[in-house]
Design goal:
about 725 residues; alpha+beta; Beta-Lactamase; 6-stranded antiparallel sheet; 5-stranded antiparallel sheet; 18 helices; 21 strands; elongated
Length: about 725
């Protein structure tokens, strides 16, 4: 935690560059900006007014000269016609040599006439008595797009014009003057190479019939306009700088009193609050005692800070309680993590006394506890149960659902159910009470270690990846059924894979294929298969670790969104079954007919697991039905007792052995005489047909009375 001096030092450094400087700079910038805007607007208005003044001046002078020349219109018309006639006879070469002595000589006779000189002298007097830069008579010729000079009183050899001299003009200027209108000024403002910035206004000269024969043109130089603009800018800028300075100082003083000083007082109170917190001084009057008379916002800020000061103390007490509660929850989550880990088999090698197969598994939850799970267990010495699953959701709810689903699946498989029957049974159990509508994807299988036949069922889970001896890992696109817990009444299917010694099955959850890298790209199944095929050393542990390492290298520092679970089993060699290793199932039920169904189901599942033919299964079901019915009808009547049924396999020769034990009345069915089936039904004694049918369906039948129990054993070879 920072010390009070450190906090104060930081606040001081910040203050030297904060509000005062910002206020000064903002005010000065705003004043300058407004001054520049005012300068631009005023300058524009000034230029427009001054330009209009120059246009009006040149127009009025041209108009006055036109009125004065009205008495000479006939003589002037003659001069104009002769000059224009000769101008139009000029060749292109002559026009290119304008202002030369050779071309001007063609107009000397007109220039020397007394009438021409009289008009020239008159206009010279007019020019000398005005402020014009130049006044002259000219004709706009649209054919050659030129202004042809008629009379120019300027005697300067460099600037004066002779009759027939011409200058090129733009189409806009020609249209401006030739389309004469009385309601507007006619002028042209140009920046010419010869004259610079100049404003030309004109007024038409008319003959006796009112036809325009030429224009009196008056030029006004705009040098004075430029000088006036510069003068305006200088004085305006000087005034603006003075006003900006005064305005900035006044505004800064005002804002400092109204804003900066109250903010500094609030900052000082805040530093005092921090200092007291560091020194563990319990005080709540740092802000409440401030008397801020500034704007509403600052007063509101003081009230908010005072409320905050009071609320922080309450929050600190609440935070202490929440921290303790969080630590308790974290402890419980850690305990839940250990409990979940303990529920999954994690000791490897899993079956150190077995060399016919090897198995390894990894689970990395995305949170403290996860929803993935795996399981493996020996149903008997020759059958290995495999389960991998992924519960919807994450965290504690998924973990609780996972524990329930895992126990149900294990119990169903341990009771002798096939993978499809186990999924069907567990789905019904979960759907009966699943208000949270959670579900689980499951792949489960039973590997016959003697034959290598893997019987499996897939409830919406990922495809297994299989490698056969001498081959590479490939994705097995097996049959998919609906997820467990999603809908009641689902009948799951199963399929078989024949594994040879050297085969390997890799199972995983979607957290592997859907692991996401920093670029949001998925790891994918192709990389999973490549990682498996890159492993040189055999063994499920190496395979799982290679895939896990590849996933971590792909993901790098990106967060883990899903649990990562893998289960790998290698089938190394066929298991040789001995008599003591033969599988067996047993069940104890009451001697009532409604218990016949679970007994028959146990026998049927056991026979399915042994790949018995339909004929043997049908015969053994008939045998069980007859023997169990006799026990129900005669052993305990009128009471009800226990019946223990056990079914097992014999090794050499292969057989199905079923024994029935009850504590009822002693009775040896082998001593009963078989009924004479050649007699009519009404002639035969009642009873005996069931026992006779059993004797004919089985290969051996043995009875003994031991430990006060009737024990009847039947054997069927296959």
């Amino acid at each position: 935690m920072a010390s009070a001096d450190t906090v104060s030092g930081k606040a001081g450094r910040d203050h030297s560059l904060s509000v005062s400087t910002i206020v000064f700079r903002s005010t000065a910038f705003g004043a300058i900006l407004h001054g520049l805007i005012a300068l631009a607007v005023g300058l524009a208005m000034y230029v427009v007014a001054l330009t209009d003044q120059y246009i009006a001046l040149s127009h009025n002078l041209a108009r006055t000269a036109t009125i004065a020349l009205k008495d000479h219109s006939e003589e002037l018309e003659s001069i104009v016609n002769r000059v224009m006639a000769r101008y139009h006879t000029l060749s292109d070469e002559d026009r290119r040599n304008v202002y030369t002595e050779e071309v001007r000589r063609k107009f000397y006779d007109i220039y020397a006439e007394d009438g021409y000189q009289k008009i020239k002298d008159y206009m010279d007097d007019f020019l000398n008595n005005s402020d014009l830069f130049g006044v002259y008579i000219g004709v706009y010729d649209p054919k050659t797009k030129a202004l042809v000079y008629i009379v120019d009183p300027d005697e300067n050899e460099d600037t004066g014009m002779y009759p027939g001299d011409w200058e090129p003009v733009e189409d806009e200027e020609i249209d401006e003057f030739l389309n004469w209108g009385l309601d507007t000024y006619h002028y042209s403002i140009d920046n010419t190479e010869r004259w610079g910035w100049i404003c030309t206004s004109g007024y038409p000269l008319r003959n006796a019939e009112g036809k325009i024969i030429a224009f009196v043109l008056a030029d006004v130089t705009l040098r004075e306009l430029t000088h006036s603009i510069c003068t305006f800018i200088f004085y305006f800028s000087l005034s603006m700088m003075l006003l900006v300075g005064l305005w900035t100082v006044a505004e800064v003083l005002h804002l400092r009193r109204r804003i900066v000083d109250p903010i500094n007082r609030i900052a000082a109170a805040a530093m005092g609050y921090v200092r007291d917190k560091i020194n563990n001084v319990d005080s709540k009057d740092h802000f409440a005692g401030l008397n801020i008379r500034a704007g509403t916002e600052l007063r509101s800020l003081v009230h908010v800070m005072a409320d905050m000061e009071n609320n922080i103390s309450e929050f600190e007490d609440h935070l202490t309680t929440m921290t303790a509660e969080k630590e308790r929850i974290q402890t419980e989550l850690s305990l839940a993590t250990r409990i979940q880990a303990d529920m999954l088999p994690s000791t490897f090698p899993a079956f150190p006394d077995r060399d016919d197969f090897d198995i390894y598994a990894i689970m990395e939850p995305a949170k403290e506890v996860g929803g993935d799970f795996y399981d493996y267990f020996l149903l008997d010495s020759s059958h290995l149960g495999l389960v991998i699953a992924d519960v919807s959701g994450k965290g504690v709810p998924a973990a609780l659902f996972m524990m329930m689903a895992k126990l149900l699946l294990r119990n169903a498989l341990m009771e002798g159910m096939s993978p499809s029957a186990a999924l069907t049974e567990v789905n019904e159990a979960i759907c009966r009470n699943n208000r949270e509508e959670m579900f689980v994807t499951v792949w489960t299988g039973i590997l016959d270690l003697c034959t290598g036949v893997l019987t499996a069922a897939n409830a919406g889970h990922e495809f297994p990846i299989v490698r056969h001896p001498g081959g590479i890992f490939e994705i097995l696109k097996d049959k998919h059924d609906f997820v467990v817990g999603g809908m009641p009444g689902i009948k799951y299917r199963q399929y078989e894979i024949t594994l040879e010694p050297g085969s390997c099955v890799f199972l995983y959850t979607d957290g592997v294929a859907e692991a996401t890298g920093e670029s949001l790209e998925l790891y994918g199944l192709e990389r999973t298969v490549q990682a498996l095929n890159s492993v040189q050393e055999p063994g499920p542990r190496k395979l799982c670790e290679a895939v896990f390492s590849s996933v971590n290298g792909f993901v790098q520092d990106a967060p883990q969104f899903d649990d990562i679970t893998m289960l790998c089993v290698t089938y190394d060699k066929k298991f040789e079954l001995k008599d003591q290793d033969m599988p067996a199932r047993s069940i104890t039920v009451k001697s009532t007919m409604d218990q016949l169904e679970p007994v028959t189901a146990m026998v049927t599942d056991f026979l399915d697991a042994q790949d018995c033919s339909k004929r043997i299964k049908h015969q053994m079901c008939v045998v069980v039905d007859e023997i169990f019915s006799n026990i129900v009808n005669y052993a305990y009547v009128p009471e009800v007792g226990d019946v223990h049924v056990e079914i097992s396999c014999g090794a050499q020769p292969a057989s199905i052995d079923v024994s029935f034990a009850d504590s009822g009345k002693p009775f040896n069915p082998l001593q009963c005489t078989d009924p004479d089936v050649s007699l009519e039904a009404d002639e035969r004694e009642i009873g005996g047909l069931g026992i006779m049918m059993v004797k004919r369906l089985v290969d051996e039948m043995k009875y003994e009375y031991r430990n006060c129990q009737n024990v009847l054993t039947v054997k069927k070879f296959f």
